[in-house]
Amino acid sequence: MDDHRAQVEELLADYRRSREQLVSVQRELAAVSGQASSPDGMVTATVASGGRLTHLELSELAYRRHRPEQLAELIVRTVAAAAAGAAEETYQALSAVLPASTDPAAVVAGTADLRPDEYAADDTETLDLGYQPVRRRVDDDEDNEQRESWLDSELINRRVR
């Protein structure tokens, strides 16, 4: 009977250690964040775990240096860079508790035990909801180097009318 009791105690001790490690990883995951700034410093984004945007800062000059569509694209790229940083932190926290052969990115994506053909999008089952693709404006170098603010040009256009 003592042998059985010792096995139970050992199992309980293992369970407690595993649970403590899980609590530790959960705390690390809850604290995950990523921050990125645009190359010109006009946009700074901070995201939490899961890529949730928690802070977005735009320089006062951002509206003068970039046209609206350029600024929108810059924001999207900066948030994506911050999310990538947060994702890397997430993968590092998870890799401490996962078997060495397990890809943390696949665990987060929910595809760790699936083959690519099981989670790849099936092109034959698309549903047309009537959405039209958004036409993107092509940026050329002259437009990016433009010194006159789009805000100023809008004001000038209104005064001329």
If you had to describe this structure to a student in words, what would you say it looks like?
There is one protein chain. This protein has 161 residues and is mainly alpha-helical. The protein is built from seven helices and three strands; from the N terminus they run αβββαααααα. Strands 1-2-3 form a three-stranded antiparallel beta sheet. A hairpin with a 4-residue loop joins strand 2 and strand 3. The radius of gyration is 25 Å and the shape is elongated. The model is unreliable at 126-147 (pLDDT under 50).
Low-confidence stretches: 126-147
Number of strands: 3
Shape: elongated
List SSEs in N-to-C order: HEEEHHHHHH
Proportion of residues in β-strands: 5-15%
Helices and strands in order:
Blueprint: H1 2-30, E1 33-37, E2 43-48, E3 53-58, H2 62-65, H3 68-95, H4 104-109, H5 116-119, H6 141-144, H7 150-160
Antiparallel strand pairs: 1-2, 2-3
Can you describe this structure in just a few lines?
Helix content is 53%, strand content 11%.
List keywords for this structure.
three-stranded antiparallel sheet; 7 helices; elongated
